[in-house]
Amino acid sequence: MTSRTGFFVLSAVLALVALICVGEGVQLVATGKPLGIGLGLCAFVIPVVGLWFLRQTVRFGRDSERLARELEAEGGLPVDELERTDAGRIDRASADAVFARRKAEAEAAPGDWRAFFRLAVAYADAGDVPRARKAMQHAIRLHRGTTTDTTTGTMSKPARSNA
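Structure (tokenized):
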């Protein structure tokens, strides 16, 4: 099962659970008893938290893909230079070497979202998914805060609209 298919299956399950929680919450509030009302209100909170998490996950995925497409259009996607074992797994020493290089690039250019995107890929290749996600979130924040002037290649803050 691909991660995208798994995401849609889990999203459908989350939506079903949210509907069930809301239905149960309505029934508990309808009892009119203080405990039932309290539990019913809590049952309304569960879907809100779940749907917020789903929204954040969708937004992260969409923004990550947008950065990847932009970096690919610029010809700046990281090249897969990792050595693999006979079974096809990434060689740990190879991943560590690439990671060290990507980390140095990100430290040398702390305001460049491209460097942090490549660092996130290196973290993921090294098996450190939580740090990969944090590095990608940082790249997304940097991308939102700056734009590149394609004529000069310089970074600048986006123009704000007064509308």
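The beta strands are 147-148, 155-156. The longest strand covers residues 147-148.
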